[in-house]
Design a protein that fits this description.
The complex is a heterodimer of chains A (561) and B (351). By secondary structure, chain A is mainly α. Chain A is built from 23 helices and two strands. In chain A, strand 1 and strand 2 form a beta hairpin. Chain A is globular, with a radius of gyration of 25 Å. Chain A starts with a helix and ends in a 7-residue tail after the last helix. By secondary structure, chain B is α+β, with helices and mostly antiparallel strands. In chain B, the strands form four sheets. Chain B has a six-stranded mixed sheet, sandwiched between helices. Chain B has a five-stranded antiparallel sheet with strand order 13-12-11-14-20, with no helix packed on it. In chain B, strands 15-19-16-17-18 form a five-stranded antiparallel sheet, with no helix packed on it. In chain B, strand 16 and strand 17 form a beta hairpin. Classes of the chains: A mainly alpha (561), B alpha+beta (351). At the A-B interface, helix 8 and helix 9 of A face strand 6, helix 2 and helix 4 of B. Bound molecules: adenosine-5'-diphosphate (ADP) and magnesium ion (MG).
Chain lengths: 561, 351
């Protein structure tokens, strides 16, 4: 290698760093810092008066307490449900566990607000399918359930955020060397004792990590509290922030920042603390040559347990999806469900509604642009972090992680105050601001996916190309890119899908010409057009499902949600 | 201490017959190795003895207790078998320190504190880990983790100790010294040991008897000397040590090697075609013109020996000449060979 190419390589590298850092600083660091600044600086001087005013307001304070209460309960419930599920699926001879595993992981693909819409159809006090069914069967005069309640919110959130815990815990279960459990059995401990004394303590770090993810997601959730909680006057921080921003006044925005900053600090702080603490405690388990999990025989509990798991699967996935499907095809909502009350007419009107199709188009366009930009940027960031020894190589990666960890509502608010002309850049109600917000939130998905696969590509592979006479760029093109291409595709979809059905940020950032499908669905639900909403919900689900199947196929089965 | 009786045990996974009619008795206090290439079913057999797999056919007795029987459905859970086991990956629990790891089997038995401490410390001494009690596994080297696993397996004074390739993750030097330590421990504690390995020198050095397996089938059960000197078949001869196979014709008092253009006097029980195995160290090389002539094709200097490929007739034989007598020889030089010992495998059984 001569000095010339070395020098140009060196230059390219710095150019790449500079670009990545600039994009991230401009769109992630700057807005967040400015958000904090706006929340504490009043007329040029630091002043905590804003916080005092905001939190002494009874409604806000109640929202604050509700947020914590709901998040804690959802986290506790999620762990209680998913730990046994993950153990059953990963460590026992539960029949059909492959199917159950896919099912519980797949819940992750369903947008939470779609879940909320479904559960309103099932459990609303006047005409909920489950309520009317139970009333008819048991001759009740009153509906047994009311979805518009704290309990309803907790129920929906648990069903739709517990996959975060399930994925984390079951991954750890599968990675654990099974001989750690066998060693306990041979030492004389029963399966139950082994579970309590060996499996549980070994899983504790991942249980905590999964719990933290659920907590943060529940706390930053907007769709479910807005759809299920607001009608019952139950407010949480995110719904308060949206209400303040919708006031449209400077004062409203300022008060929203005080709520947002707390949310941001708690979410990032918790995530950082859990990675930091658990990073130290990460149990490195040396895998033996043949890591074949030794499955616990459920014995006579096999079928009762299977029935229980199947019931959970039915309630958490099939019941809500079935409800949406049925609602989308009813002729008349006021008549009972039967074959002669089914029709495709709602589907026809929805598909022929250009307004609806425009929203779908906007979401599709924004998500495609976001995913493509994210993939290119992520490739550079990941290469920088994994393959170079440059100083500050991890900075862009950490900024991407920061964006991913920050609650969506906070990102949206920060972007509003930063890019409404304040710094000479006005993106308000453009597609660009939607793309930027999705990018900030989901970039980390593709960075993580690509980094993980880049780590697997040993330097020697690249060096072998260099020593065969290839230039650095040529080695990238011929060796590195082909090897990581499944992860590039995977990363693209992992950004595309959540961007496509995004609601929380879009609701603050959309303009009259840039309404997204998530926002449309939300409006329909709140303005009571449940049938059209159901059709669109199914369209979203089909697109997400199709994307996921494509992803599995293209990444040769290595990735898929 | 216990005798282990394995009666016609088979294990079938789907359409893979991982273990096929394994049948042997491991005597009380005996050290038996199960030896074979990777994937031949060693671990599966060991796990059936431990109770982690159920036999598809046959039965297993430990002492006079029937622990597994496919036919009568008897199955004793692993925790009820009073066995010590050392896993290939050590399986030392990362959330417990050395003391807690080793004491675990005793705490399961709900013994009192003093007794647990006394017995744990004694075993830690036995495996030379005194002073490490408070350490956590991530502060230990591979060899030390290995000792923790060993101590944990021994702390209850089990009647039977099972080891699954316990040394394969250690470096070569440590591996050799651990062989002697494990052997010493077995002698001192006088326990029955079943030791799984794919390393023939490990099995040779430690075992009273070796069970050689290939593709799920037991090929031979014999002492190390017998396995090496009178292997039951070509598979065993090939797997244990090095061997040259040469086609031959047997007569009543001669072995004729058509491809070498050579014959050796020997009284044969069989007649007809045969394959003859000749170990490289059993061929004497000489510089004087006597016996079978060959040409050195390649020569590798090994320090304590010279490893040669010698072309003889239409064959190329591997010959190991101990000492430094052939150090100076060049490729292409002529040498003379004498076939000292041979292992005869008749082709087809014509007595
Ligand atoms: N749980 C299992 N399911 C399916 N096949 C298995 C299982 N355990 C072992 N096998 C198969 O049985 C054979 C023997 O495996 P094993 O006993 O682990 O071999 P070894 O320990 O000698 O390397 C292999 O072909 C392996 O793939
Ligand atoms: Mg094995």
């Amino acid at each position: 290698m001569n000095g010339q190419t070395f020098f140009s390589r060196f230059d390219t590298k710095w150019l790449v760093i500079a670009c990545a850092v600039t994009v991230l600083v401009l769109f992630t660091a700057l807005p967040m810092l400015y958000l904090i600044y706006r929340s504490v600086v009043v007329e040029g001087s630091v002043n905590l008066e804003n916080y005092r005013v905001v939190y002494s307001n009874a409604v806000n304070f109640r929202a604050f307490v509700n947020t914590f209460k709901v998040s804690l309960l959802v986290t506790g419930l999620s762990v209680l449900i998913t730990f046994p599920l993950a153990w059953l699926v990963g460590r026992t001879n539960l029949p059909g566990k492959g199917f159950f595993r896919t099912l519980f992981v797949a819940t992750y693909m369903i947008p939470p607000y779609v879940g909320a819409i479904a559960w309103i159809q099932l459990l609303n006090p006047s005409v909920g399918y489950v309520n009317t069914f139970l009333m008819a069967v048991f001759g009740l005069t009153q509906a047994p359930f009311n979805i518009y309640s704290m309990g309803g919110m907790i129920w929906c959130m648990t069903l739709f955020y517990s996959p975060f815990a399930f994925i984390t815990i079951s991954r750890a279960m599968e990675k654990m060397d099974p001989s750690l459990e066998e060693a306990s059995r041979i030492a004389g401990a029963s399966p139950l004792k082994t579970l309590v004394r060996v499996t549980l303590p070994l899983m504790l770090p991942s249980v905590i990590a999964g719990g933290v993810l659920v907590f943060i997601n529940a706390g930053s959730s907007f769709g479910i509290p807005a759809i299920v909680g607001m009608p019952a006057q139950i407010e949480v921080l995110t719904t308060r922030i949206v209400t303040y921003v919708y006031m449209g006044t400077g004062k409203g925005i300022r008060e929203a920042t005080a709520l947002a900053v707390i949310l941001m600090v708690v979410a990032n702080g918790l995530l950082y603390a859990s990675t930091f603490l658990l990073g130290k405690k990460e149990y490195v388990t040396i895998g033996g040559k043949s890591m074949r999990p030794n499955l616990v025989d459920l014995g006579r509990w096999k079928w009762p347990v299977t029935a229980l798991v199947a019931a959970y699967g039915f309630v958490s996935v099939f019941l809500p999806l079935g409800s949406i499907l049925v609602t989308s095809m009813l002729k008349s909502m006021s008549r009972p469900v039967s074959f002669d009350n089914l029709t495709f007419s709602t589907w026809k009107t929805v598909v022929n509604n250009t307004g609806y199709m425009d929203c779908l188009g906007t979401s599709f366009f924004a998500a495609t642009v976001t995913a493509t930009v994210a993939t290119v940027v992520a490739l550079f960031i990941a290469y920088l972090a994994v393959k170079t020894r440059t100083k500050g190589r991890a900075v862009p990666d950490s900024l991407a992680t920061l964006g991913g960890a920050t609650p969506s509502i906070v990102i949206a608010l920060a972007l509003i105050i930063t890019f409404s002309g304040e710094f000479g850049l006005n993106l308000y109600s453009t597609v660009a601001i939607l793309v930027v917000s999705y990018l900030v939130k989901y970039l980390t998905m593709s960075v993580r996916t690509i980094s993980a696969s880049l780590t697997q590509v040993h330097v020697s592979l690249e060096e072998a190309a260099l020593s065969s006479g290839a230039s650095w760029l040529r080695a990238m093109k011929d060796i590195v890119l082909p090897l990581v291409s499944p992860s590039i595709i995977a990363g693209w979809f992992l950004v595309f899908m959540p961007s496509f059905y995004e609601l929380t940020m879009s609701i603050l950032l959309y303009g009259s010409k840039t309404k997204t499908i998530g926002v449309l669905l939300y409006e329909m639900q709140t303005y009571a057009d449940p049938q059209d909403a159901s059709v669109l919900a199914i369209v979203i689900l089909l697109i997400v499902l199709g994307g996921n199947l494509l992803l599995r196929k293209l990444s040769r089965g290595s990735v898929g949600i | 201490m216990a005798e282990v009786r394995i009666k016609a045990v088979s294990k079938i996974f789907g359409d893979v017959k991982a273990v096929n009619a394994f049948d042997t008795v491991v005597k009380d206090g005996e050290f038996v190795s199960i030896l074979g290439p990777s994937g031949c079913g060693k671990t599966t057999m060991l796990r059936m003895i431990a109770g982690f797999e159920r036999p598809s056919l046959g039965e297993i007795w430990i002492g006079d207790e029937l622990v597994s029987s496919a036919e009568s459905g008897v199955f004793l859970a692993p925790e009820k078998r009073s066995i010590g086991m050392v896993f290939q990956s050590y399986a030392v629990w990362p959330h417990m320190n050395v003391f807690q790891n080793v004491a675990y089997p005793l705490t399961i038995k709900n013994l009192n504190k003093e007794e647990i401490a006394r017995r744990t410390n004694r075993v830690l001494g036995l495996v030379h880990l005194d002073g490490y009690a408070e350490r956590f596994p991530n502060q230990l080297s591979g060899g030390q983790q290995q000792r923790v696993a060993l101590a944990r397996a021994l702390v209850c004074e089990p009647r039977l100790l099972l080891l699954d390739e316990p040394l394969s993750n250690l470096d070569a030097k440590l591996r050799e010294s651990m062989r002697f330590e494990i052997k010493e421990l077995q002698r001192k504690l006088n326990i029955t040991v079943i030791y799984v390995t794919h390393d023939q020198s490990e099995a040779m050095a430690m075992s009273d008897r070796i069970v050689v397996m290939h593709q799920g089938v037991v090929q031979q059960i014999a002492s190390p000397v017998d396995v090496y000197e009178t292997p039951a078949n070509e598979t065993v001869a090939d797997f244990i040590g090095l061997v040259n196979f040469v086609p031959a014709e047997l007569t009543a008092d001669e072995v004729i090697f058509p491809s070498l253009g050579h014959a050796v006097k020997r009284d044969n029980a069989c007649r007809g075609r045969a394959r003859v195995g000749i170990r490289p160290e059993n061929i004497a090389l000489s510089k004087t013109e006597t016996g079978l002539q060959g040409t050195i094709v390649h020569k590798f200097y090994m320090g304590d020996a010279t490893d040669c490929r010698v072309a003889v007739g239409t064959e190329t034989l591997r010959v190991i000449a101990k000492g430094d007598g052939f150090r100076e020889y060049q490729d292409g030089d002529a040498v003379w060979l004498r076939l000292d010992k041979m292992i005869v495998f008749p082709v087809g059984d014509k007595a």
